[in-house]
Design a protein that fits this description.
Layout (H helix, E strand, L loop, with lengths): L1 E4 L14 H9 L3 E5 L10 H6 L3 E3 L2 H7 L2 E3 L17 E4 L7 H10 L2 E4 L13 H19 L20 E5 L3 H13 L2 E6 L2 H11 L3 E5 L2 H10 L2 E4 L14 H5 L6 E4 L21 E4 L2 E4 L9 H30 L1 H4 L2 E4 L2 E2 L2 H6 L12
Parallel strand pairs: 1-2, 1-4, 2-3, 4-5, 5-6, 7-8, 7-10, 8-9, 10-11, 11-13
Antiparallel strand pairs: 6-14, 12-13, 14-15
Length: 370
């Protein structure tokens, strides 16, 4: 199969879908890898390193899109890439369809197949989403710590506090992989940390891991409202696999926060869990102010730690890229139920129910077209 790997062009996105070792595995399996020139520069890998393992270096993205059967990338096609979508092409990447009606319509109208990293499921876990969620959780605390400083626009707080000075209060909504990454980082720094989740077993597990350094609360409106009001930094880490994130943090909750406080919504690429975050921001312009509270809504947080993120991502996606390339997407879906759950749109149909539900569109079971 002809596999295309293009340079990511989303704002400040430095990751690339595959490391040289991943490309080597694809080439050794008998596939032709078309690699866009300089696509690896964001992780300090040169064209020659990819060429040495068998990639064919191509000067333009268009040539790769036009000549590939499978596009293997990190982030969803941005607007200027969507004209390349066509019948007979499969795109394997993070897609987050439930937050982007135009992207859904582009795939449906073109007939291209959208295979989403984030909905591939193994034993009720999301192995291709987990590493980036963990990075996003860790980075949310780092970004939030900077934004709380006066030079960052905040109220001049230090997360860990000092002798005689209390630490900042970090409230994390959601105790999954991203939330756990945020907890680990915030606890390690020395902040006062509270997590809210509606899964009591999950809260018990987090309490076992972090002990007295973490306050756990069951997520209901009363507890959420009180915790948000008292927070210096709020991290939204709510996930509905493949679906649009519910707006758990309401505008009046945000308005109750002290001016100069910070909200970081890791879930923004699925629509976000904060009512006052109505759009994603970018690394070039990451924040805006509402009710005196700093809102950070960058949808590709891990792109700033591109080398670590690319290696973590390539480690978990390569085996699935190989399965698609060796079998074709239809046969792969029949043979590998975990991979089948990654197929969101195919042959002009929405085949992932949460995506159809997000926009009240017709849902077609995948089994009907394979």
């Amino acid at each position: 199969m002809k596999i295309g790997i293009v340079k990511e062009i989303k704002d400040h996105e430095y990751r690339v879908a595959a490391t040289p070792s991943a490309v080597s595995a694809l080439v050794k399996a008998g596939h032709k890898v078309l690699f866009e020139s300089k696509a690896g520069m964001g992780i300090n890998h040169s064209d020659s390193e990819y060429e040495e393992v068998g990639a064919i270096i191509i000067p333009t993205a268009k040539e790769i899109w036009d000549n590939s059967e499978l596009i293997y990338k990190v982030k969803e096609p941005v607007k200027q890439e969507r004209s390349f979508l066509r019948k007979g092409l499969a795109v394997f990447s993070y897609l987050h369809f439930a937050a982007d009606r135009e992207l859904v319509e582009s795939f449906v109208s073109s007939g291209a197949v959208g295979i989403a990293f984030e909905t591939i499921e193994v034993n009720h876990k999301l192995p291709l989403l987990s590493p980036m969620s963990e990075i996003g959780g860790c980075m949310s605390i780092q970004e939030g710590a900077h934004l709380l400083t006066k030079t960052g626009g905040g109220k001049g707080m230090l997360l860990q506090g000092l002798p005689g000075v209390p630490p900042a209060h970090v409230v994390i909504v959601g105790g999954g992989v991203a939330g756990t990454g945020a907890i680990r980082t915030a606890v390690g720094i020395g902040a006062r940390v509270t997590v809210l989740d509606n899964n009591v077993s999950r809260l018990a597990k987090l309490a076992d891991i972090f002990g007295s350094r973490l306050e756990t609360l069951y997520s209901n409106e009363y507890n959420l409202r009180k915790a948000i009001r008292e927070a210096d930094l709020v991290v939204g880490a709510v996930l509905i696999p493949g679906g649009r994130t519910p707006k758990l943090i309401t505008e009046d909750m945000v308005a109750s926060m002290e001016p100069g406080s910070v909200i970081v919504d890791i879930a923004v690429d699925q629509g976000g869990c904060v009512e006052t975050i109505d759009r994603p921001t970018s690394h070039s312009n990451p924040t805006y102010l509402k009710h005196g509270v700093i809102h950070y809504a960058v949808a590709n947080i891990p792109g700033t730690v591109s080398r670590a993120a690319t290696h973590a991502l390539s480690n978990v996606t390569t085996e699935y890229a190989l399965k698609i390339a060796e079998n074709g997407w239809k046969s792969a879906a029949k043979s590998y139920p975990d991979l089948a759950k990654g197929i969101n749109i195919a042959e002009h149909k929405i085949v992932y129910k949460a995506v159809a539900d997000a926009f009240k569109k017709e849902y077609t079971p995948l089994e009907d077209i394979i």
